[in-house]
Automatic annotation (TrEMBL):
<dbReference type="GO" id="GO:0016301">
    <property type="term" value="F:kinase activity"/>
</dbReference>
<dbReference type="GO" id="GO:0005737">
    <property type="term" value="C:cytoplasm"/>
</dbReference>
<keyword id="KW-0418">Kinase</keyword>
<keyword id="KW-0808">Transferase</keyword>
<keyword id="KW-0598">Phosphotransferase system</keyword>
<dbReference type="Pfam" id="PF03610">
    <property type="entry name" value="EIIA-man"/>
</dbReference>
<keyword id="KW-0963">Cytoplasm</keyword>
<protein>
    <submittedName>
        <fullName>PTS fructose transporter, subunit IIA</fullName>
    </submittedName>
</protein>
<dbReference type="InterPro" id="IPR033887">
    <property type="entry name" value="PTS_IIA_man"/>
</dbReference>
<keyword id="KW-0813">Transport</keyword>
<keyword id="KW-0762">Sugar transport</keyword>
<dbReference type="InterPro" id="IPR051471">
    <property type="entry name" value="Bacterial_PTS_sugar_comp"/>
</dbReference>
<dbReference type="GO" id="GO:0009401">
    <property type="term" value="P:phosphoenolpyruvate-dependent sugar phosphotransferase system"/>
</dbReference>
<dbReference type="GO" id="GO:0016020">
    <property type="term" value="C:membrane"/>
</dbReference>
<feature type="domain" description="PTS EIIA type-4">
    <location>
        <begin position="1"/>
        <end position="137"/>
    </location>
</feature>
<dbReference type="InterPro" id="IPR036662">
    <property type="entry name" value="PTS_EIIA_man-typ_sf"/>
</dbReference>
<dbReference type="InterPro" id="IPR004701">
    <property type="entry name" value="PTS_EIIA_man-typ"/>
</dbReference>
């Protein structure tokens, strides 16, 4: 199983985990959220991420999901990239998280990360366009 660490501004990651568990109807194994307060020292924040990775670490690697490319959570997380062991995907949303949880036992970390990137982009919809019959890609 691939472990999942959600690194976000504030408590967004905690809310995503809580909501995913509500939808799935059970506690999710090997997942944790790391809340980033930009007023904390960078070394303290890196330490939080290290502890998060250790908490969820499994033989198949760790996926770090961050809220926004270029933000502090993402920038800190990039230093943990390790091919085949730790991957970082920015732009987490609830559909990405649910897909990650439901797919992480079926594939390797690199493949899962690639699929989640595509899936996340497709999970964004403009309701008025759909209601008007516009095709989705």
């Amino acid at each position: 199983m691939i472990g999942i660490v959600i690194v976000t501004h504030g408590r967004l990651g905690d809310s995503l985990v809580e909501t995913a568990e509500f939808i799935l109807g059970s506690r999710i194994e090997a997942i944790t959220a790391v809340s980033i307060n930009i007023n904390e020292a960078p070394d303290e924040l890196r330490g939080k991420i290290v502890r998060g990775i250790k908490t969820v670490s499994r033989k198949k690697g760790t996926l770090i999901l961050t809220d926004m490319f270029g933000g502090t959570p993402s920038n800190l997380s990039y230093s943990f990239l390790e091919e085949g062991k730790v991957e970082v995907l920015s732009g987490v949303n609830l559909p990405i998280l649910l897909k990650a949880v439901n797919s992480r036992e079926k594939m390797e970390l690199t493949k899962l990360s690639e699929i989640l990137e595509i899936y996340g982009k497709k999970s964004i919809s403009l309701a008025s366009g759909i209601l008007k019959g516009n095709k989705r890609n």
